[in-house]
Amino acid sequence: MTDDNLVIYEEEIEKIDSILARMLKGAEAKCALLVDKDGHLITRQGFTHSLDTTALAALLAGSFASTKEIARLVGESEFSVLFHQGKKDHIHMSIVGDRSILAVIFDDRTTIGMVRLYAKEGATELAKIFATLKSRNTTEHAGLTDEFAASAGDKLDDIFQD
Amino acid sequence: MVSINYATREVTCKIVYYGPGLSGKTTNLIYVHKKVPATSKGKMISLATEADRTLYFDFLPINIGSINGFAAKFQLYTVPGQVYYNATRKLVLRGADGLVFVADSQAEKMDENIESLTNLQENLEEYGYNIDEMPIVIQYNKRDLPGALSVDELNAKLNPRGWKWFEGEAVNGRGVFDTLKMIIKLVLEKAKNTRTTTSAARSAPASKPAPAQAPVAAQQSAAIGTTAPSGRPTAVETTAAAPGGAMPQREAAYQAEASPQAAEPPLEHNVLPAESVSGPTEPPDAPIQTPAEESMSRPFPGSTGKIPRRERRITVSDFQPASKDEDISALRSRLNDENEKLQQDEGSGMPSPSMAPSERVVKKKRGFFKRLFGVK
């Protein structure tokens, strides 16, 4: 598993973004985040400027991971949908394919039913994209060049100063 | 695993601080958070108990800046060290690109160090990771305490694999950055040599026509990837085809879902025990409603046809024609009779909580039907 880096190209993100945007419009939700199960934010759509999406991604992934363990303990393989209800804002999370999480944040202008419906649709479409992403052969190096690692090394000394 | 996002131009790596309870993992992160310039760090998140013990994880995103056009981001996590939090500890390990093992140098903590290291190996194996292939740095922490063992002793017991190690005093920052710099270097080194997921089609002829945006993107990937550019056009071809062709159909589907009433019958069938009420599924030869009838079946002008259960009455759509020749006016008068009877039944007692609309509602509805059908 660690032998594969997750590489996402621009055109894939564009496709994903268009699916998310369509979903948001249909469900009238505020924003959507697509998060890797490892906690990396893949992409986001909607009103996310006021959100710390990096932290949100890590916490959402953590939340999903712990729920999966809970599911295992009660004899389920995993809970595919997770819903947090707040006073004003709510979060609906669902699994996309086998390694991503789609989180939709919405308020009372829409309903959980609408969000569920559109999230399900969106997740199905996204799963197809991730399936093609996964089915790529691991025949090439598209990783980091020597230069990248070396430049990074130089930068570290600048930032990490006691 | 290292995540390389060509759209946001980001390379993200996950580094996990592992080790026994109270060995100083969170303290490492706090120090990094304190010292790194504000422009290079995100908010530190700590999921801790009230007693300030890590319950799930601490999280600190670090951005070391743009390298070859890509922002290099590192996400630092700590695990809960206490033995009984293994379930959550294991979860944090998922997708880790590198590990820092923070060991407690005190002699009496040696058993805990060993136990934690064994646990690390077990948890990695459960994810299918090989501890020998994972970039790992050891930090011998708490060197300032009087009971600290010598580095040789620690190395002999904890570092048979010869990982890079550093002495540390996380509280005052000694060794914290050295450890972090080393693990970042090791992670990047590993990522460089890692086979990444790219399409086989990408290695296919690069002569295929590229979409407008491809050249720029290809340049970007040339900076960071070695062979990706050649394949990009092919990948674009396969992926770009979908939105154009599939969109209209999908949009139509969305529209249909957005207005579910359009697809449903205009009114749900009445639950009242009238013999003429049809079942939930209309037989194929059900009367074809004229547009006028359809609008009549809606209880209030401008309503969507969805009415609260308590207010449902028998309506035109509930009627089967007695015969094929039965015309619309006969149907209407039958409907009126039914509703008349219904009102009398309700008026004469037999209260049923589930179908006891207030008098006001009944009267109002009667008036509505009277007006609509012109029946006195």
Comma- or semicolon-separated keywords:
heterodimer, A: 162 residues, alpha+beta, Beta-Lactamase, 5-stranded antiparallel sheet, 6 strands, B: 376 residues, alpha/beta, 8-stranded mixed sheet
The CATH class of chain A is identified as: Alpha Beta
Per CATH, which architecture of chain A? 2-Layer Sandwich
Strand order of the largest sheet of chain A: 3-2-6-5-4
Largest sheet of chain A: 5 strands, antiparallel
The name of the CATH topology of chain A is Beta-Lactamase
Low-confidence stretches of chain A: none
How many domains of chain A? The number is 1
Order of helices and strands of chain A: EHEEHEEEHH
Element-by-element helix/strand order of chain B: EEHEEEHEHEHEHHHHHHH
**Mean pLDDT figure of chain B:** 71
Shape type of chain A: globular
Write up this protein.
The complex is a heterodimer of chains A (about 160) and B (about 375). Chain A has helices at about 10-25, 55-75, 110-135, 145-160, and strands at about 5-10, 30-35, 40-45, 80-85, 90-95, 100-105. Chain A has about 160 residues and is of the alpha+beta class. Chain A has one domain (about 10-160): Dynein light chain 2a, cytoplasmic (Beta-Lactamase). Chain A has a five-stranded antiparallel sheet, sandwiched between helices. Chain A is globular, with a radius of gyration of 18 Å. Chain B is α/β, with parallel strands linked by helices and about 375 residues long. Chain B is built from eleven helices and eight strands. Chain B has helices at about 25-35, 85-95, 110-125, 150-160, 175-195, 215-225, 230-260, 260-265, 290-295, 330-345, 360-375; strands at about 5, 10-20, 45-50, 55-65, 70-80, 100-105, 135-140, 165. Chain B is elongated and about 105 Å long. Residues about 195-310 and about 350-360 of chain B have low confidence and may be disordered. At the A-B interface, strand 1, helix 1, helix 2, helix 3 and helix 4 of A face strand 1, strand 2, strand 4, strand 5 and helix 2 of B. Strand 1 (about 5-10) of chain A pairs parallel with strand 1 (about 5) of chain B, so a sheet runs across the interface.
